[in-house]
Amino acid sequence: MIGMLAAELHRMWSRRLLRLLGVLALAVVLLGATITFFQSSRNAGALRRQAEAARQRDLAACERGEFNLPGQNRESFNLERACERVIGEYEVPDPRWHYVSLQGVLLGTSPLLAILCLLLGASFVGAEWQKGTITTTLTWEPRRVRLLATKLAAMAIVGMVFVFVMHLFLAAVMAVVALVAGSTAGVDGVWARETAGLSVRIAAVGSLTAVMGCAIATVGRNTTAALAAAFVYFAVIEGLIRGFRPKWQPWLLGDNAGQFISGQAAGEAMADKTTADVTLTLLLYAAVFMTLATIFFNRRDVT
Amino acid sequence: MAVIEAEGLTKRYRRFRKGVTTAVDGLDLVVPEGGVFGFLGPNGAGKTTTVRCLLALVRPTSGRCHILGADPQRGHLNEVIGRIGAIVETPALFPGFSGRRNLELLGRPSGIGATAVDGVLERVDLAERADDRVKTYSLGMKQRLGIAAALLKDPELLILDEPANGLDPAGIREVRQLLKRLGAEGRTVFVSSHILSEVQQTCDRVAILARGRCVAQGPVEDVLASGQAAKLLVVVDDAARAGELLTAEGISWSMNGEGLTVDLPRDHGARVTKTLAQGGLYLSELRASSDDLESVFLKLTEDGEDDDR
Questions:
Q1: Nearest-angstrom CA–CA distance, A124 and A115
Q2: Each residue of A129-164: pLDDT tens digit?
Q3: Are B232 and B269 in contact (CB under 8 A)?
Q4: Closest by alpha carbon to B147, among B169, B133, B165, B128?
Q5: Do B58 and A303 touch (CB under 8 A)?
Q6: Which chain B residue's Cα is nearest to A17?
Q7: Interface residues from chain B to A (CB-CB < 8 Å)
């Protein structure tokens, strides 16, 4: 079993799509980091000076009576003080990138990573059916359940590792941005633990979607069919259910995955679900997909 | 001992809108141990489906089969798969990987190392191109790589489905020589093919399949003999007169380019000689009509090329 798993992982690693998606994702991370770097590098002092100049302009206009403050025509009215009160201090946002917001970046990129994992899983098995290599593999390992279990395990590992590699790269690149042109304020042990936990949860969802992609492609024996099915489910069916059957929302895969990652309920319908509930729901989905894939793979002829 | 046995093996495919297609129809087959066994049949005769049944890739509708004593339909194939090397149709390997990488990945779970991979690549004459991607290989090279994959386990039984498909004459000759060598080593080589000359030149035994049924099987010479029609070829100076004499004797005949074809088996030559001699005609030549495997094959399978299996 270990030898088979190693062979499947090698096969997966040798796939061009994995490398292509990996390089593409890393390039997107680099691009995002570069943009953040330049935004973060903007001079905070200049921004403060600009804000102060704008404040002084507004103050002067107010004192010329251009703001028509209520009661400004009364004799006892102190226009200067009233203007100071009305305009107040102009807040200058800190333009620097704060490393603590890495969690937000991880959350924001999690749907994209989940989709990439789904694509990887679907294409891994879909290509085997398309090229006919599954036949060759079965002439070496005729125990289909064992073979499929190995493929699903390999895909789960690849999905998880893919997400971790992306997160590590993202964290490293953004750390450089924060150290050179941003801020690391607020980064401490608690934050690091929370971020690591978030990364693990996103990786778990990546692993799940990779396994799902693999399972759907096993049933449909085709990459495109698997991707189309996933698209129809996430883009159409889940939307319709949210719109017309909100009571069913606690059973939606997307909402459960979202709550599992963020720890926050997606709407009122999900408010009663605990983290344990959503974890169980996701595991149930994984079990259903894997069982269906096993039944189809085991029963159907390979022609 | 039989390495492959099939008894009443039947496979029907149910296809949406196309209804039911019978690919294999009550096939009885016995492949003895050792040598090269040809599994001959026209396209669509059910050869590949039979191979797929033997390798548990498809589930027979009825009947049973055994391979090296194991019943594939009961999940026992795993017990013997390490002794079987197989290619089903065009060998499907990963086109983006090199030939060597493909073989390494196949062999890794069975603990087959780099030395064995190098050995089989050498054996099929692919060592020089082993590190090139499979998609750059010619069809012949892909076939040879498929054979290399089948040989990787050093199998007792080699199942090759149309191994000469798409090969040029030189490639066909190479495969033929390789199969003969493998058979001579004591392995059993089960080759399915629709190329008659290949089977005739390579195989010791043959089974002929038509419309999913085995219509003849045994040593190649026996099948040739059994398939031959009971006919004698008679060459005589006056063919018309000879025809009259034979008709008078109640023997049916027909004219051919050389002389007469007489509808009698080869051991009835004396009767023909006597009849013609009594009529004052003397034979220039008398011989049994000899068919090659192609003629036998066409006779046996003449109605078997309609279905696509």
A1: 14
A2: 988 889 999 999 999 999 999 999 999 999 999 999
A3: yes
A4: B165
A5: yes
A6: B96
A7: 13, 52, 55-59, 72, 75, 77-78, 81, 84-97, 101, 105-106, 108-111, 149, 153
The amino acid occupying position B83 is: R
* Set of chain B residues whose Cβ sits within 8 Å of the Cβ of A145: none
> Which chain A residues are Cβ-neighbours of B93 within 8 angstroms?
133, 136
Of B13, B58, B86, the CB nearest to A139: B86
Parallel, antiparallel, or unpaired for β B213-219 and B232-236? Answer: unpaired
Note whether B55 contacts A139, CB cutoff 8 Å.
yes
Between these two residues, A210 and B294, which has the higher pLDDT value?
A210
pLDDT at B117 over 70: yes
Pair A117, A159: CB distance under 8 Å: yes
Q: For B160-193, what is the HEC assignment?
A: EECCCCCCCHHHHHHHHHHHHHHHHCCCEEEEEE
Sorted by sequence, the CB contacts under 8 Å of residue A107 that are 6+ apart come out as: A198, A202, A261, A262
Cβ–Cβ contact A19 with B under 8 A: no
Cβ proximity of B149 and A136 under 8 Å: yes
Angle subtended by helix axes B169-184 and B139-151, to nearest 10? 10
**Nearest to residue B148, comparing CAs of B171, B116, B173, B124?**
B124
DSSP secondary structure code for residue A128 in this structure: H
Query: Over the range A175-190, which residues count as b (16 or more CB within 10 Å of their CB) and which as e?
Result: bebbeebbbeeebeee
From chain B, pick out residues whose CB is under 8 angstroms from the CB of A13.
none
Distance between CA B281 and CA A64 in Å, rounded?
144
| A14, A143, A303 member nearest B97 (Cβ) | A14
A91 to chain B, minimum CA–CA distance in Å? 58
CB pairs under 8 A between A and B: 83
Q: Cβ distance B163 to B87 under 8 Å? A: yes
Which of the four pLDDT bands, split at 50, 70 and 90, describes residue B28?
Answer: very high
What are the tens digits of pLDDT across the range B182-218? 889 889 999 998 877 778 888 989 998 888 888 888 8
Locus of tokens 């690693």 = A13
Condensed to tens digits (0 to 9), the pLDDT of residues A72-119 reads 677 777 888 888 888 887 777 777 888 999 999 999 999 999 999 999
Q: Which two tokens stand for residue B284?
A: 């220039």
Residues 6+ apart with CB under 8 A from B138: none
pLDDT score, position B307: 43
What is chain A's mean pLDDT, rounded? 89
User: Is B252 or A79 the better-scoring residue by pLDDT?
Assistant: B252
Residue of chain B whose alpha carbon sits nearest to that of A131: B92
Cα distance from A112 to chain B (closest Cα, Å)? 27
What DSSP string runs through B198-250? HHHHH-SEEEEEETTEEEEEEEHHHHHHHHS-S-EEEEES-HHHHHHHHHHTT
Count CA atoms within 13 Å of residue A256 on its CB side. Answer: 22
Written as six digits, the tokens of A54 are 């704008």
pLDDT at B207 (0 to 100): 92
pLDDT number for residue B169: 83
| pTM of this structure | 0.80
Inter-chain contact A303–B52, Cβ cutoff 8 Å?
Answer: yes
Closest CB to A131: pick one of B56, B87, B95.
B95
Q: Residue B256 CB: number of other CB atoms within 10 A? A: 14
